[in-house]
Amino acid sequence: MPVITFANTKGGAGKTTAVLLLATELARMGHRVTVLDADPQLWISRWSEMSGEMRNLSVISHVTMASMETHIRENRSNTDCFIIDLPGTKSPLLTMALGISDHVLIPVQGSAMDARGASEVLEHIELLNRKMGMKIDHSVVLTRVNAMISTRSMLLVKALLAEKNVRVLNTPIAERAAFRDIFDCGGTLEALDCQKVSNVEKAMENVRNFAYEVLRLMPVRVVRSDRDGKFLGRKAA
Ligand SMILES: Nc1ncnc2c1ncn2[C@@H]1O[C@H](COP(=O)(O)OP(=O)(O)OP(=O)(O)O)[C@@H](O)[C@H]1O
Ligand SMILES: [Mg+2]
Predict the structure, then answer these.
(1) Domain of life, per the record (predicted)?
(2) H-helix or E-strand containing 160?
(3) Which atom of ligand 1 has the smallest separation from the CA of 176?
(4) Which residues have CB less than 5 Å away from ligand 2 (the ion)?
(5) Structural domains in the chain plus CATH codes
(6) Is the CB of 206 under 6 A from ligand 1?
(7) How far apart are CA 215 and CA 196, in angstroms?
(8) Ligand 1: which of 17, 19, 145 to mutate, most ligand atoms within 8 Å of CB?
(9) Nearest CA to 84 among 140, 35, 156, 138?
(10) Which residues pair with 140 in a beta bridge?
(11) What is the per-residue pLDDT across 158-201, written as a single tens digit (0 to 9) for each?
């Protein structure tokens, strides 16, 4: 029952988009996912309302510092994976979410400002380790990457992270219209109208690879359900 938090104190880094992509893909694979929407902008909650009931996926809105742990405790038995969407600010909520996470994913676009927001999260994780002995596993996921070219600033950000020995996922999240459109249309990538949205297949492949890579990092591996959605159990990774 891993808890995954997406964090970057820089607003607009791509947290909410990455949360939605991972949550819908894990649910599609058969994992029961609960998203804790702790962002006051409530993008995921609005998407959920627009989408209606989704198989294997539930969203809890207005999650606060006071309610976060209770939501996790109360939904433990019906959830294989919790995913937390945080606001793009430095707050006590960030500290709390980091502290209860099995893995923290830090979305970074190829810009110096984004890298600074990521550094704040990395420093926070280091501080929790130093002061409280908490070892919080974490990785950077590059987002809004141009599928065709590596920009100079993206290469610089990668070099900076490698220097600091920060794990960077092999699968970046590409810049795709489909990743914007699911917020406008509701539902999943598969449900998007391929006539109107370009490269939906490529977008789906990108998200599949991202989700597989994230699953490989988890301390507990959940065995996906069969084609009829029957849950098959779980085992240690
Ligand atoms: N991979 C992507 N492809 C295309 N557009 C993207 C992608 N990732 C993010 N965006 C767009 O960038 C903007 C910011 O993304 P998002 O809301 O996911 O960031 P955030 O980190 O959650 O922001 P905040 O800190 O305000 O919560 C949105 O308009 C979103 O549609
Ligand atoms: Mg957000």
Answers:
(1) Bacteria
(2) helix 152-163
(3) 3
(4) 15-16, 39
(5) 3-228 (3.40.50.300)
(6) no
(7) 31
(8) 17
(9) 35
(10) 106, 168
(11) 787 888 889 999 899 999 999 999 999 899 998 887 667 788 99
